[in-house]
Amino acid sequence: MYLFSYFKTEDESMYLAVSRDGFQWEEFNGGAPVLKGAAGTRQMRDPFVYEDPQGRFHAVWTDGWNS
To answer: Do 34 and 15 form a contact (C-beta atoms < 8 A)?
Structure first.
């Protein structure tokens, strides 16, 4: 299973897509955002999800351009 995180310009929140083969992707959560910004500019640009060595997942992103 593959996971792809992204944002949409009209709604700068975190979206996810999933794929079994890395070629055909399906929007997760019915195409709705899975996480919205709550601090700073409340924008989420360039979201990135990664797994640490202990198996915990983390998300990082850019908080707009002027914060």
So the answer is: yes
Query: Distance between CA 25 and CA 19 in Å, rounded?
Result: 5
38-56 exposure pattern, b = at least 16 Cβ within 10 A, e = fewer: eeeeebbbebebeeeeeee
**Among the listed residues 33, 4, 29, 38, the one whose alpha carbon sits nearest the alpha carbon of residue 18:** 4
Whether the Cβ atoms of residue 33 and residue 11 lie closer than 8 Å to each other: yes
pTM summary value: 0.86
Q: Given pLDDT bands bounded at 50, 70 and 90, which one contains residue 39?
A: confident
